[in-house]
Specification:
Distance between the termini: 7 Å
Strand order of the largest sheet: 2-1-3-4-5-6
Structural class: alpha/beta
Strand content: 15-25%
Number of helices: 5
Number of domains: 2
Shape: globular
Order of helices and strands: EHEEEHEEEEHEHEEH
Length: 252
């Protein structure tokens, strides 16, 4: 039995690189990880992880059409921008099991991004800065966001996962327009201010303070923290993994 874990492996976005369940759990030796956008050999079970890949899942070149194959979407974003989407409907029809990272989307099982399993969240170091800004490399300029030079800043492209988490942990208040920047800061129990650019920011397990490119600096005292979020997100991920394990066992 071949199990393939497919997501956006070959990308500069740190969050997309670390959102596969392959990285956080033990799997059979036959399991392998692949980039969703690259064609590959047939497999018996496909597990598709991460973010906003769900809409294009059914047409992605890495997805193999094999009779009897089992398709599982894990921790994907399911809140499309339009009420009716043929792409999303095709992905739903293809998958036997869907775990949505979007809390409140009751069409699916709830499974927040599996990167919450990273051990760095267990005991983050104390903050060293009152405010840090974790920026989305491709959206910050487009949103018209200006970050004054006295605030430490890092983008979500190019750095390692460990470096990104270390940077986020260094802030008492974390301001971010990156989905994973907001998510990881909430998991660390930091005060969080989110500058959203799409609907994908609307369904975190617990909400940050939402602001705008023009207001955020004047609202730094309104950052929201949720110290319970790590435990609750991990519990939801473990619950979904049990569903996946059961489905794989029945398919074997």
């Amino acid at each position: 039995m071949t199990i393939a874990f497919l997501h956006l492996r070959d990308t500069d976005n740190i969050g997309d690189r670390w959102c596969s369940p392959y990285d956080w759990f033990d799997w059979p030796e036959s399991a392998e990880v692949r980039d969703l956008r690259k064609p590959g050999a047939p497999y018996d079970i496909g597990v598709y992880g991460g973010g906003k890949i769900f809409g294009g899942l059914a047409s992605n070149p890495g997805v193999v059409r094999k009779p009897g194959a089992l398709h599982i979407a894990w921790g994907v974003g399911t809140l499309q921008n339009f009420p009716i989407s043929l792409k999303y409907a095709r992905a739903r029809a293809m998958c036997t099991l869907v775990g949505s990272r979007d809390r409140g989307d009751d069409r699916y099982a709830y499974s927040p991004c599996v990167s919450c399993m990273a051990p760095q969240f267990d005991n983050p170091p104390p903050p060293r800065h009152s405010v840090v800004f974790y920026a989305h490399a491709g959206k910050t300029d487009r949103q018209g966001i200006t970050v004054p030079s006295h605030y430490p800043i890092m983008t979500n492209n190019g750095s390692s996962h460990a470096d990104a988490l270390s940077f986020i942990a260094s802030g008492e208040t974390v301001v971010s327009n990156s989905y994973h920047g907001v998510y990881w800061a909430l998991l660390m129990g930091r005060r969080v201010i989110c500058l959203p650019f799409s609907r994908k920011f609307s369904a975190f397990h617990a909400a940050p303070h939402f602001s705008s490119p023009k207001r955020w600096e004047s609202e730094l005292n309104q950052g929201v923290m949720h110290p319970e979020m790590l435990t609750e997100c991990r519990a939801a991920v473990w619950a979904f993994k049990q569903q996946v394990d059961g489905m794989i066992a029945r398919h074997s």
